[in-house]
Amino acid sequence: MAERTCIATGQTLSPHKLIRFVAAPDGYAVADLAGRLPGRGAWVTAEESIIRKADQKGHLKRALGVGLKSVDADIAAIAVGLRARIIATASMARRAGMLLGGGGKLLSEGHFEGLLAAADASPRELAKMKSKLDVDWVSQSFSATELGRICGRDSLAFVGLRASTGNGSGKLVRTVHEDIMRLEGFYTTAGCNDLPDRCIT
């Protein structure tokens, strides 16, 4: 997808660094995390402070004719929605054979493009996994329970992602990675400890 311009900062960025907002039927602006809702969209950098600025300075109202209903509630909802979106997409990757859970299984399979490690994973085990799997990127943005949910387990410490040889597989893995980067960018500036799930990055 082509780069978009943030209505609050004027910066031109990749879509995974932004959040699209649209005017909802109830007369307020809502976040369109999948970027598919109908209507004219306005793009805002995926950072808590900039979303606040876009609403408080009237950027959203000028672009869409409406503002946020409650900036605090909407920011909390965006954080929850981003996490839910990643878990759902990662679950799709698992069903497509591009995601595998469990440290032992990952080590037996070899190289993976990405590694999801539980927030409380052993630093020693994590270093071992990174080295053995030769991963391109690592994220510790999820709990062991959340990683387990992706794989239908109670909990998991490690989950690996890699593109298969099938058509379109690379796009699905890339979507998971880009959504994780957007989540982590959002959390670096949001008041994470005030959000429902708190900040674990």
What does this structure look like?
This protein is an alpha+beta fold. The protein has 7 helices and 9 strands; from the N terminus they run E-E-E-E-E-H-H-H-E-H-E-H-E-H-E-H. It has a 4-stranded mixed sheet, with helices on both faces. A 3-stranded antiparallel sheet has the order 4-3-5. A two-stranded antiparallel ribbon has the order 1-2. Strand 3 and strand 4 form a beta hairpin. Helix 3 (71-95) crosses helix 6 and helix 3 (71-95) packs antiparallel against helix 7. The longest helix has 25 residues, at 71-95. The protein is elongated.
Q: Could you list some keywords that capture this structure?
A:
alpha+beta; 42% helix; 7 helices; 4-stranded mixed sheet; 201 residues; single chain
Which structural class matches the secondary elements?
A: alpha+beta
Largest sheet: 4 strands, mixed
> How would you describe the shape?
elongated
- Alpha carbon gyration radius: 18 Å
Q: What is the CA-CA span between the terminal residues? A: 27 Å
Concise account of the structure shown:
The chain is built from seven helices and nine strands; from the N terminus they run E-E-E-E-E-H-H-H-E-H-E-H-E-H-E-H. With 201 residues, it is an alpha+beta fold.
Helix and strand arrangement:
Elements: E1 4-5, E2 12-13, E3 18-23, E4 29-32, E5 41-45, H1 48-56, H2 59-64, H3 71-95, E6 99-101, H4 103-109, E7 114-118, H5 123-133, E8 137-142, H6 144-150, E9 158-161, H7 169-187
Parallel strand pairs: 7-8
Antiparallel strand pairs: 1-2, 3-4, 3-5, 6-9, 7-9
